């Protein structure tokens, strides 16, 4: 007998805790009786005292036995028995996207060829016990070990290639072990390229599947979109792959939200990835599609000619507000939809500056020097800024001391400031605006620290009402903490980013099929099709672009083994014995689980023995 | 007692109309009742003749005898008197076991109804370690409602001391009568002294020994902590079949002691199980035991 999860046996030490608790808590059940004087005369015989002693231990014994049974079951014990039967054969068929490649114009796909080969293998192994696995990024068991050839054929012909990437070897090995812990007599892997692991070390045979002619593939391998820093246009990045040995000139179509925005010819260098950048000067985009039109050239796999992109979504700033409230600034922060505001009336030691993109202090003081990103409104952050009493400006205007991008397009001449805080600032920083000699807008930056000081009394000025105010605040926040972006592109085989999402989310896939997450359907949320996935929650819609992993397009011709071979290399298969003597593994955990539960029930009944009682009126008969 | 079913249903009370309490002793009642006494009175029941003395009521002169013997005799009739009935109800905590108290209250209600039906005075005397407030003996139809109300609201309290309770009663009550004791009689200090006090004061005593099935057939086994429901004393014990048999023998001997005492002192004794339907107890057990007819 071996234990597949031997670590669980350490849990047997819990028995000590059970024993300690048992002896600490052991207490007989109290039973009320009319009087004790009739019982007091009853002497406990040595026999019953001994029984009492053993009874104490019986409950503990049952508990420990139940614990031992359950933990041993958890350790997954397996025993092996010898059995005679057919040889065991595991067939792995590559279900990754590249298996959709056609082996000849108008010909079958590689997957269909693999299926035909497997059907032949089935015919030549009539007594074998066969396990069928489809290998891709998320490998699946098509059939558990069986010798039912009709069922295997049915399952196989009903299957099809996915849009996922290549299989992970560790997952394949786990899947195989789950079906035959003692191993298979033979493992055959049908794929279109050499697997990314040493198959000979594992003892697997690899059957390469491809056409007679060298494959030719044109593909878009990367497509992404970024908003231009001026926020009025988009940059579109595209990479295309030409696996042939000749230059290829093909039309490229770009669509945005189903509208054609560009169409042009592009030239693709032989056996290279070519990069292109386009600019789109349009409104906000959500669905972008790039498509290579390959009607006039040979292309064995057309699924990778189209690629989807969705622009990343800026993540709101997470801002901690400490100190007094301020109507103008709070209104801007709350209504802009670009901030996630948390308020505290005073600083406390539990605040972690790293939890926030920026910390805004209003008419208060940072208790000690620390790293972080701070916006100080008439506030102090010793030793860099020490705000003092407010003083009247006496109609002195605001002076621009430095031409800084933060002030681009802002005209402080129209600002009317009645009062301003005097402040002592670190000379290593920069005062962008001053009123007389008093700094009004001051920046300081060092390793791990960015700090902006604004000395204006917003309640005694028109700054909060001016058009410059939101622009200035946006730039201040952008300087303090550049906004992170949420990527909106996913690869097939991944899961949509739904972890931690509150409330139900309706997911609509590219085929317009919907499911509600969380859902009992385990595949809800898994990206399986190329195209756009819509996530609707609380009235907002997020678009995610899903694409086939680009490695599927790129890996084919770069595979040395396959490129060296122009015809299928059918290895000579080792002959399988018709009847084999082999060890058959039997998992014992179900029996141990049942035994553990039975012992627990027994212990419960022992604890409350009234459940055993039958009403037999002994004395009553005599008494009546 | 709030979970008690309807105290005594009308069908049951209707059946009680055909029964009456058997009183064996001679008691001098103070009020008119239905029990014929040897005292001369005004009932329709002829008792005897006595010689006429001047001053006797001429209406009771038997003129037929005068015609035959030329002597004047007066017809004497028996007197119908009431009997005081004292219902002693054990309300100690031990009566909680097996709902004995509920059963005892209903039994007491039935006996009170029988007593009052025959124009007797009936009182309820609950006791535990001592007498507690009850319903003083009175006659009349209003008394039955008062007794029922009291019995329905009765709550268990205290430990049992039959001796102390009955001794105290005998000291404060002078008028003898029919004393019916409803109790499990499970008292550490026994019962003899209390019953002797009643006998000494010429009460006609009936002991209704009420036990629950839990008392004589406890469903116990293995290691248990027995807890006295009255004083919360505990006794850890391993209950085996042998222990149960020993307990059964001890209870049997205790019962024999009680029964023997009653027989020796001419007390009526009835063993009642709270598991027996009340109707069966009243119409069968107590009739066979000559408490009711």
Architecture blueprint of SSEs:
The complex is a heterodimer of chains A (624) and B (293).
Chain A: E1 2-3, H1 14-25, E2 29-33, H2 37-40, H3 46-74, E3 77-85, E4 88-94, H4 110-124, E5 129-135, E6 140-146, H5 149-158, H6 169-179, E7 186-191, H7 199-202, E8 204-208, E9 218-227, E10 234-242, E11 248-256, E12 259-268, E13 272-280, E14 288-292, E15 306-309, E16 313-314, E17 317-323, H8 327-335, E18 339-344, E19 358-362, E20 372-377, E21 385-392, E22 398-400, E23 419-425, E24 430-435, E25 438-446, E26 449-454, H9 468-480, E27 485-486, E28 489-491, E29 505-508, E30 514-517, E31 531-537, E32 540-547, H10 550-558, H11 560-564, E33 580-587, H12 589-607, H13 618-623
Parallel strand pairs in A: 4-5, 4-7, 7-8, 17-18, 17-19, 19-20, 20-26, 28-32
Antiparallel strand pairs in A: 1-3, 3-33, 5-6, 9-10, 10-13, 11-12, 11-14, 14-15, 16-27, 21-23, 22-24, 24-25, 25-26, 29-30, 29-31, 31-32
Helix pairs in contact in A: 1-3, 3-12, 4-5
Chain B: H1 10-16, E1 32-51, H2 63-69, E2 73-81, E3 84-90, H3 100-117, E4 121-127, E5 135-138, H4 141-152, H5 162-172, E6 178-183, H6 192-200, E7 204-211, H7 213-216, E8 222-228, E9 234-239, H8 241-264, E10 268-273, H9 278-288
Helix pairs in contact in B: 3-4, 5-6
